[in-house]
Q: What sequence folds into this?
């Protein structure tokens, strides 16, 4: 869209979508997995409704992966200021109903901040949607395979894979998450290894696309209901 199209849109609607992601290790998948998934599910959900999707915020809060090359973390204080500035900018432009589609668990401090921001801006409503563990999606994931985790099969979609990369044909045993949360980045890498927390690395595409259909519909419902 160009600016005149956004201006025309705001004359008849005030909804928009802001995807949040992270650039971090995902084992054999793209470093941009969280960015790809949050933006792609946002576009798939919003485009049929004519609701604009702003570009994904590509960097997030991921200090525990700093020992993995290509993983870039933003401090919590910096991240919350970025989210604040974006929300302020959207409000200034005339958006009043904002759906944040988050693709990275480490970004959850922003979810708490959104409540504070709305308290200071009662003319706006912001929904914070962790698309991958929202109720309907998570139920579908558990129905498919109860061993699902970061960088495992549950994030392995055709659009997060890399060409000429072969996935291991095995099920990785679970990482001790309680221990992981106490470790510095180098020790965390030693514990996690390739980056998968638990489970197989890939499942059939028909299963993944069935999960994706649920994710798109659950996201779309948030755009049309409950404002």
A:
């Amino acid at each position: 869209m160009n600016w005149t199209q956004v201006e025309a849109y705001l004359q008849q609607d005030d909804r928009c979508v802001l995807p949040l992601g992270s650039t971090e290790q995902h084992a054999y998948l793209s470093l941009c997995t969280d960015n790809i998934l949050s933006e792609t599910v946002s576009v798939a959900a919003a485009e049929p409704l004519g609701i604009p999707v702003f570009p994904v915020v590509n960097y997030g809060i991921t200090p525990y992966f700093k020992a993995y090359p290509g993983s870039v973390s933003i401090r919590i204080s910096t991240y919350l200021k970025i989210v604040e500035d974006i929300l302020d900018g959207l409000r200034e432009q005339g958006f009043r109903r904002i759906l944040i589609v988050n693709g990275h668990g480490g970004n959850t401090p922003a979810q708490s901040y959104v409540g504070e921001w709305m308290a200071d801006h009662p003319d706006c409503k912001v929904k914070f949607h962790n698309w991958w563990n929202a109720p309907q999606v998570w139920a579908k994931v558990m129905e498919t395979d109860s061993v699902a985790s970061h960088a495992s099969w549950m994030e392995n979609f055709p659009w997060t894979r890399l060409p000429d990369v072969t996935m291991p044909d095995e099920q990785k045993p679970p990482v001790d998450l309680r221990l992981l949360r106490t470790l510095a980045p180098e020790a965390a890498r030693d514990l996690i290894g390739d980056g998968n927390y638990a489970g197989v690395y890939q499942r059939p595409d028909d299963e993944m696309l069935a999960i994706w259909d649920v994710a798109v519909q659950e996201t779309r419902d948030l755009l049309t209901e409950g404002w």
